[in-house]
Design brief:
Elements: H1 4-11, H2 38-51, E1 54-55, H3 60-63, H4 71-79, H5 90-99, E2 101-102
Parallel strand pairs: 1-2
Length: 104
């Protein structure tokens, strides 16, 4: 079950009500909620502080695109090929809260 506090935190960035309660755990931060770039940094800063979760080092660029025009954006613009990013779901974030550490 996804905590009320986590839902409220995410609702500060995107309206979860439009997805329906049953879909919320499986929603992916980038792919479904369009959270990326500087928003990711702010999001994880708040996540760590609010829930006292240790985030083990992981490569954010494996999960989220950079904001603005980076090399991958230029390639995507000219080729039409989308980069594939690993999925990070709301359920993953809840597991991190439950375990006090986010391991990806």
């Amino acid at each position: 079950m996804i905590s009320k506090e986590l839902k409220e935190m995410i609702n500060n960035v995107v309206d979860l009500d439009k997805f329906g309660e049953n879909r919320i755990p499986g929603l992916r931060l980038y792919h479904d909620l369009n959270i990326y770039g500087d928003d990711v940094d702010d999001f994880f800063d708040e996540y760590q502080k609010l829930f006292d979760v240790t985030i083990h080092p992981f490569n954010f660029t494996d999960y989220f695109p950079e904001e603005g025009w980076d090399w991958s954006s230029i390639v995507r613009f000219f080729t039409g090929k989308e980069n594939t990013y690993k999925e990070l779901t709301i359920a993953d974030l809840q597991k991190g809260i439950d375990n006090k550490e986010l391991i990806l």
